[in-house]
Amino acid sequence: MSPTESIRPTWRVEVMHGVNLDMLGRRDPAHYGTITLMALEQRISELAAELDLEVRFLQTNAESEFVEHLHGLADLVDGVILNPGSWTHYAYSIHDALELTGLPAVEVHLSDIQSREPWRRVSVIGDLCLATFSGMGPDGYRLALERLRTALDEGAS
Description:
Elements: E1 11-17, H1 29-32, H2 37-50, E2 53-59, H3 63-71, E3 79-83, H4 92-101, E4 105-109, E5 131-134, H5 139-156
């Protein structure tokens, strides 16, 4: 490599899945598809590798664990992708914990929350996120990874 070539950094990304996402594959396929959480995380790992991103995962059904995990991320990763599930719509504790991290974040939802019940159309974390991808199924995670990669690269230059 010549001295003028730059080395593309490997960024570390946390992918956080919230309440009921461990039930993927058993939930309403009209909204969530048939993919399981394990298969989704495998796909995300493959997509991340293509983008030279290192990913870690968390899934929990305990809001307090989700919040505590966010509290500890600042020194471990460079960015975060969140699908808090239904906590998206009311859990200001997650909003505040995400804000405290200071990390760039992207919100993802497998289903199209804007075309569902009115209460699902509200996101209490959206104002802290670079982007929200909703209703694209697993492909939303590809877009989230790409958006995060771009933001991290831009922030490094």
